Amino acid sequence: MKPAIVTALLALGLAPLAAQAQSAPNTQVGATTAPGKVAGVATTEITATVTAIDPATRSVTLQGTGGKTRTIQVGDQVRNFDQIKVGDTVHAKYTQALALELKKGAASMGAPTEESAVTPAPAPGAKPGGTVARKVTAMTEVVAINPAKQLVTLRGPAGNEVDVNVQDPSQLQNIKKGDHVQVTYVEALAISLAEAPAKR
Predict the structure, then answer these.
(1) pLDDT digits (tens, 9 = 90+) for 77-95
(2) What whole-number distance in Å separates Cα of residue 68 and Cα of residue 106?
């Protein structure tokens, strides 16, 4: 997901679970717009080799095909962590989606709501792996509009503000100060250990 989007998420208190995946290879990005609605999604897939493991922090260092390394923390959703060994091949798929929907009239500015889901744990002795998904919804208020710069300033439930770039100028015709924008952020992270090649 673009750095500007990530900055907006952080400012609104919607921090990504695995921000380190943003710079990984094989990333596909898509966006759609409709009157009063904007949505974007980014999916990153990576295959890497485990070069180091720190059981105390549940972190692994991965080296991709280009030789670059990155260290990531593996949450409790990835079961059988102790089976991961240096030299193993790991597949990771990380998806982020952000949707903004204009809401006219009064709206509740309560705290963001969060839903999460985790795949069932693999059986004892099975390959390490797991998937975690999270959905956060927050209502924000439009506090300023700058048509010249195509910017809309949103204020989150905690009073923090962020400027959002509106790439479609026609969207600005529907927005006025005092309107509300519902922000929905969804992310999913799947990690699995590749099968070892058969010995000959």
Answers:
(1) 666 777 888 998 888 787 8
(2) 50
Write down how long the chain is: 200
Domain boundaries, the chain: 3-193
Alpha carbon 17 to chain centroid distance? 6
The model's pLDDT over 143-185, given as tens digits with 9 standing for 90+, comes to 999 988 888 889 888 888 888 877 777 888 888 899 998 989 8
- For 113-143, letters b (16+ CB in 10 Å) and e give eeeeeeeeebeeeebbbbbbbbebebbbbbe
Residues 6+ apart with CB under 8 A from 110: 139, 157
Tell me which residue of 185, 179, 187 sits closest to 154, measured CA to CA.
179
**Tokens coding 134:** 């999270």
Task: Give this prediction's pTM.
Answer: 0.64
